[in-house]
Structures are given as structure tokens and as C-alpha cells.
Amino acid sequence: MGSFVLHGNIIDSESPERLRVAADSYLVCEEGRCTGVFSALPERFSGLPLTDFGDRLILPGMTDLHLHAPQFAFRGLGMDLELLDWLNARTFPEEAKYADLSYAALAYGQFVDCLRRSATTRAVVFGTVHPAATTLLMELLEASGLVSYVGKVNMDRDCPEALREADAAASLAATEQWLASARFAHTKPILTPRFVPSTTEKLMTGLGRLCETYDLPVQSHLSENRNEVAWVKELHPDLPSYTAVYDTFGLLRPEKTIMAHAIYLSDEEKRLLRDKGVYLAHCAQSNANLTSGIMPLRRNLENGLTCTIASDVAAGHTPAMNKQIALTIEISKLYSLKHDREKALTIGEGLYLATKGPGRFYGQTGSFEKGYAFDALVIHMDDIEGLERTPFEKLQQFIYDGDDRNIIARYVDGVSR
Ligand code: GUN
Ligand code: FE
Predict the structure, then answer these.
(1) Deepest of 112, 246, 399, 412, by most Cβ within 10 A of its Cβ?
(2) How far apart (Å, rounded) are the C-alpha atoms in residues 285 and 273?
(3) pLDDT for the residue numbered 354
(4) Distance between CA atoms of 353 and 308, rounded to whole angstroms?
(5) What's the rounded Cα separation, in Å, for the pair 367 and 245?
(6) Is the Cβ atom of 282 under 6 angstroms away from ligand 1?
(7) What pLDDT does 387 receive?
(8) Dihedral over alpha carbons 368, 369, 373, 377 (to 10 degrees)
(9) Is ligand 1 within 6 A of the CB of residue 269?
(10) Which of 64, 66, 67, 68 to mutate to test the pocket of ligand 1 (most atoms within 8 A of CB)?
């Protein structure tokens, strides 16, 4: 973890409204943390090694708060289905394969290789119910240099025999065993009840206790699809809402919980989610692919909910966070056509929702302010020699059509990766 200086066109989102463009500037890293952005390099940093990236862009690394590692292998398949059929036809048969560690090594190897070449420097990832395969995934992520949380999935009902844990006690015991083996520096465990329909009350009660005992964060799915929401109502007729089910079992840990999708919510649910500081992973591409619906993103942001842009691979067909930003903006434009008062998302807001917004889950990450973890991407968008474009124009082109080939350097916690 070094101290050094990068020179280039530096862009970050300090807030949703404030995109900062520092052309021809210097970004200082000291001991893995950002010191700041300077238009001229202060004398006191003149002894640090300097890498000059010229006209290239320097952006914060992106944080994806919701994706499924074992689904990467079938991304783009089965998109003619809605959630519950897609789970049965595509997801569960694929996830069952991770009982076999040699298959897991192959498929997780490809997943991690793809992720580490992408714009994502931090991620929160679902594994499968299998403890050994999930620990293997963590080993691979640790070796990649990315920073992540990984969850062994809990499921003790309403899924195929091959994936169903024998009962709540067996699921909890497997989880504790996995927690004991899952000790890494940059790859941390997160409790992962798949969603309400696949977890019994007994299991949710146990997981609620476990996350308190071990002080663990929690991730799950919430109100993604109308048939799913109706199913949860049937399963828990005495509780007021889907959100209330998680809350009842102690699974909405303040500032430490990620709920993916969160499309169909009452005002009461939104109040609860806001008061608990739950991160709502907005998965626009996934929601389009599985015909799930559209989250009222603008209204949620205005109401103080913490929303972030996430890929939800494989219901989202790519982990590329730059493309997820573009798609989220596009969907927000279509949504604004039908909802007069809900303006579409801007580029600056999109960048914020993929960097500093979700980065807070890791503490101070996702921007170049003083004290923030030094996660940075160097972007080369100068494909035609001599073509004049401003740094902001290059940013737009990277978001809409950039790929791994445009990312020429990457730093995580101040280390080049
Ligand atoms: N709800 C429960 N499991 C899943 C999953 O794997 N993907 C998505 N998109 N939604 C879910
Ligand atoms: Fe998901």
C-alpha cells in the first residue's frame, strides 16, 4: 500500500448533484487513502512517485451491491421468463451444480476473472447454499485484489430437493461452520437468506440472532415481482408487509442491510427502510429482463431512501457497472414519460449511485475526497488520434459504450491491480 501521485483528467461525484471535473490535475494517494485532487501539485508531494496518464480519465472504482456469482455462467439465458419461473427453470438447476467443487472452481474462476477486469472494485455477492463452494469463491475474490462481501445462501423451503437445506437447524449450523472457515482480509461474510419464500420462520429467527451475535451485515431480495409479493402475503398473512417480515425477524440491521429490487413498496415500508438506513439495490436491467417492473427511483431518492445501481447478474446480463449506469438512466427516461414529476437521472447522479452512494457500505469509499479509500480506474477513450473531446464527453462515452479494454489501470485501496 503505497503513496504516489496520478496525473490526468479526474472526475468524481461528490454528491448526486455535484459532479466534479478536474481537468489536467493531480490525485494524491497516501498509505492507500486519498489525500485530494490538486490543479497544481503541492511542493510537499513532489517527492512521491508520479504516474502521468496525460489526457486519460481517472474515475473512482465502482461498487456493485448486488450480484450472484453462480449465475454468471447463464447470463443472458431464459430472459423470456418472469422471476419465479426463471428461478425454477434456470437458476436452481445451475446453482445445484456448485455441490461439485471442481465445477465451482471452473465457473467461479471465470466469474472472478470477468469482475476483476470490469469497472467494479468492490462488490457484495451471493454464493449458493454450499459452504465449501462459497469459501472457494471467497478465496478467488481475495486473490483478485477486489474488496467484497460474500454470502452463503440460506434456503430451507420451496426450492428443489438438491438445494434445500434439511431444516433450519442444519442451515444455521452450516452457516456457522462456513463463518468459521471464511476468514480473509478483504473478503468478508454477509448473511444471505435468499428471500422470504425460501426461508422458514425458524430459519429467519435463527439468522436474526446470528447477525447480532457475529455483528454481520445482511443481504436479500425484496418486492421484486408481483407474483412473489402475493406469495409472501399468503405465507405471512398476519404481518403487514413484505418489508415487515424481514423486520420482524431482526433482518433489517441499521445501515448494514442490502435489499435488492424493492419495487412494490407501500409508504409505510419505505418509512421503515429509510429509518433503518437499508441500502436498496436498484437493478434496472434485471427488472427489465425479467419483466419485474420499474422502481420509482427519483421519488425514492427524494424521500431519503438510499438507492444504488446494481447489476444483479444473471437476471442482469452484465456485471459491467458503466453499462448498468447507462441502462438505469435510459429506463429512468422511459419512466419519466409516464410520470410527469419524476425527472430522469443525470450522468452525475448515475455515477454517484455506482460509486460514492454504494461505497458508503464500505465506509469512506467511492470518491476522491480526503480520507477516502484509494479505489481508482484509469480510462482510455481516445480511440481516434487527435479527436477533441472534453473529459465530461469522455466520461459519457465510457458510461454508454466503454468496456474492459478502455480500463488501462485500476487501483484498490491504493494498490495497482
Ligand atoms: N429472488 C430470489 N432469488 C433471486 C435471484 O437469484 N435473482 C433475482 N433476481 N431475484 C431473486
Ligand atoms: Fe438478485
Answers:
(1) 246
(2) 22
(3) 98
(4) 5
(5) 35
(6) no
(7) 86
(8) 0
(9) no
(10) 68
Q: Which amino acid is at 165?
A: E
Phi, psi of 6 (to 5 degrees): -115, 140
Q: How far is the CA of 269 from the centre of ligand 2 (A)?
A: 20
Distance CA 106, CA 97 (A): 11
CA–CA distance from 312 to each of 28, 61, 386 (Å)? 33, 18, 38
Q: Which of 372, 316, 317, 286 is nearest to 61 (CA)?
A: 372
Any atom of ligand 1 within 6 Å of the Cβ of 315: yes
Residue ranges of the chain with per-residue pLDDT less than 70? 1
Within 167-266, residue ranges assigned H as helices are: 168-181, 201-213, 226-235, 242-248
How far is the centre of ligand 1, averaged over its atoms, from the C-alpha of 83 (Å)? 7
Q: Does the beta carbon of 7 sit less than 6 angstroms from any atom of ligand 1?
A: no
The 3-class secondary structure across 289-356, one letter per residue, is HCCCCCCCHHHHHHCCCEEEECCCECCECCCCHHHHHHHHHHHHHHHHHHCCCCCCCCHHHHHHHHCH
Q: What is the DSSP letter of 54?
A: E
The per-residue pLDDT for range 242-282, each reduced to its tens digit, is 999 999 999 999 999 999 999 999 999 999 999 999 999 99
Spell out a b/e string for 6-31, using b for 16 or more CB atoms within 10 Å of the CB, else e. Answer: bbbbbbbbeebeebbebeebbbbbbe
Please give the Cα distance from 289 to 76 (Å, whole number). Answer: 9
The mean predicted confidence, pLDDT, of the chain is 97
Q: 191-209 burial by CB neighbour count: b if 16+ within 10 A, else e?
A: bbbbbbbbbbebbbbbbbe
pTM here?
Answer: 0.98
Instruction: List all residues 6 or more positions away from 247 whose beta carbon is below 8 Å from its beta carbon.
Output: 272, 276
Three-state secondary-structure class, residue 171: helix
Cell of 229: 409479493
